[in-house]
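re: ur msg from earlier - yeah i can do the adenosine-5'-diphosphate complex, just paste it... oh wait u already did. ok heres what im feeding in:
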Amino acid sequence: STVVVGSYVHDHVWLTDRFPETGETRRALGFSTGPGGKGFNQAVACRRQGGEVVFIGALGDDALAQAARAFAEQEGLDCRWQICTGTPTAAASIVVDADGANRILVNLAANELLEVDFLQAHVASFSGARVLLAQLENSLDTVRAALALGRRHGLVTLLNPAPVHADIDAGLLALCDLITPNELEFALLLERISGEKVDHSGLATQADEQLHALCRRLDVGSVVITLGAAGCFVSHGAGARFEAGSHYRIPAERVRAIDTVGAGDAFNGALAAALADPEAGTFRDAVVHANRVAALSTEKIGASLAMPTLSEVHDRFGA
Ligand code: ADP
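and the outut:
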């Protein structure tokens, strides 16, 4: 099973022909709400791929918290919620224009108050689990504690370093078996950890050897860089838990992408599910699967609710 420690955000998605100007009130072309937050999205993606999931997160004491519980129940997600009285449940406004460009405001609220003590109180969830999955929408101390607990219990520690955080340090990365930055996050991490500046938009076209060498500077056993429509790049160090010393690319699946919001979340949830499956194949098989799930997620609008199921993946790509 997988333990996901992460954020819950109630998304409000507005469709518009164009973004309103300052002081302008425009009529939206459409509106919907749904569960989001990188942590919760990844937990739902993992669950929909057949993974057993425990999600540990924080909510306010309000109506949005009730909605969160209802969503989680529908998905069969086993959740441990820290309830923060006097703080709202996190919410976001996501405005999408006719070109699919978006502008987002998020109030992380309760997510920033998820406490190390709360994780400690639920440490029983870590025993017998195989993968610990975290992101950076909680406080760094909490993320650090989650990774340390995962490591202490022998889980594969997987950090999706998103949104990238200026205070991330080598000590935090040292707790990770595997990290999954996108191009921008990779470039910022590299600069933060090794001082090296690279142009993130040129990463997808770099030679594999060079990309592998850059990955190795982060000193994390395994690095998977997600490259959007170019798929992903995998780099394992000599001491990695998986496929030690190797590196390779997996090209993206061809799909009719209409909304890439949540593609990274689909990728991470599916990767965790595959790595946690006792009957799973190789690490490469797990990445191929994650790449398929992420591609399918771009064919639907929305975050958690757009996550494909295992049967949808089998229908499209075969079992
Ligand atoms: P993020 O959403 O975190 O920015 P990426 O844009 O790198 O992450 O996308 C994550 C993964 O989603 C990619 O590695 C790929 O597997 C898949 N993906 C993203 N965009 C597309 C696309 N246009 N076609 C197919 N797969 C895609």
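cool cool. The first helix runs from residue 38 to 48. ping me if u need the other ligands too
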